[in-house]
Design goal:
The complex is a heterodimer of chains A (154) and B (90). Chain A has five helices and four strands, in the order βααβββααα. Chain A is globular, with a radius of gyration of 14 Å. In chain A, strands 1-3-4-2 form a four-stranded mixed sheet. Chain A has helices at 20-33, 39-52, 108-122, 127-133, 137-144, and strands spanning 11-15, 62-65, 77-87, 97-104. Chain A is α/β, with parallel strands linked by helices. Chain B has 90 residues and is an alpha/beta fold. Chain B has a single domain (2-89), classed as Rossmann fold. Chain B has a four-stranded parallel sheet with strand order 2-1-3-4, with helices on one face. Chain B starts with a strand and ends with a helix. The chains are: A alpha/beta (154), B alpha/beta (90).
Chain lengths: 154, 90
């Protein structure tokens, strides 16, 4: 299963944030801009970290911000935010985080297939630093193997 | 053999852990059923599991279990998963 589309609206490069909370909100804003989610989903992503801690920092420098499926998820979505200055999420091994990927899924089942594709991409350890260093949206799409428009998924 | 991968909400990170655990098990030539779930459903899902895979952040929420708990630092590092699963299952 291919990744959801990653239009320009879903990408923010070199964002300056004071803390992890603002970094997650930036990833949520990008999901909302690309019409994958409503703004309440952004707060739910923050709530997950408040409740469970920084476990979403799954690899050095990378946070996978996400929450459960819900009515505020309008379509499967992916967003990418790179930070001008990495911030700490409070993870014992993988801080600081320079790349936040936002995920939104409509159902738990579909989800596993698209995260499998994310695993294919990120299992190459060079990809996270390359995304952190990317200077345009096209480069990030190319690194992820994502397309800009939904119709290309048909 | 049953292995459970957990995350806070049961979608996303536990899915990645499941996919990469399956890759690690393939390398080791071990047959196992890997399930992704959230910490709140863990007691039910992991009752008969041999191994629980989790982030260090979530270990404190696992509670009493007879399963081996393996802490994974980098979910995308199949070498790390392979090494830790080999120790637990070997």
């Amino acid at each position: 299963m291919p990744l959801p589309p990653l239009p320009d609206e879903a990408i923010a490069i070199g964002v300056r944030v004071p803390d992890w909370r603002a970094a997650v909100i930036a990833a949520g804003d990008a999901l909302a801009r690309s019409a994958a989610t409503q703004p309440t989903y952004t707060q739910r992503m923050v709530d997950v970290i408040d409740e469970f801690g920084a476990y979403i920092v799954v690899a050095p420098g990378l946070a996978l911000a996400h929450a459960r499926p819900g009515p505020d998820v309008l379509a499967e979505g992916l967003s990418v935010v790179t930070l001008a200055e990495p911030v700490a999420f409070g993870h014992p091994h993988n801080d600081p985080v320079g790349v936040v990927v936002g995920l939104a899924v409509t159902s738990s089942d579909e989800h596993v297939q698209f995260v499998a594709e994310l695993a294919n991409v990120f299992n190459d350890a060079r990809v996270i630093p390359a995304i952190a260093a990317a200077t345009d949206a096209a480069a990030i799409r190319s690194l992820l193997g994502a397309s800009a428009a939904a119709e290309e998924l048909e | 053999m049953k292995i459970v991968a957990i995350c806070g909400v049961g979608v996303g990170t536990s899915g990645i852990l499941k996919v990469n655990a399956e890759r690690a098990l393939d390398r080791l030539g071990i047959e196992a059923d890997v399930t992704a779930t959230d910490v709140n459903s863990l007691r039910l899902v992991a009752a008969d599991a041999q191994v629980i895979l989790a982030s260090s952040e979530l270990v404190g929420r696992i509670g009493k279990t007879n399963a081996d708990v393996i802490v994974i630092d980098n979910y995308f590092d199949v070498d790390e998963l392979t090494a830790k699963l080999e120790i637990a299952l070997g």
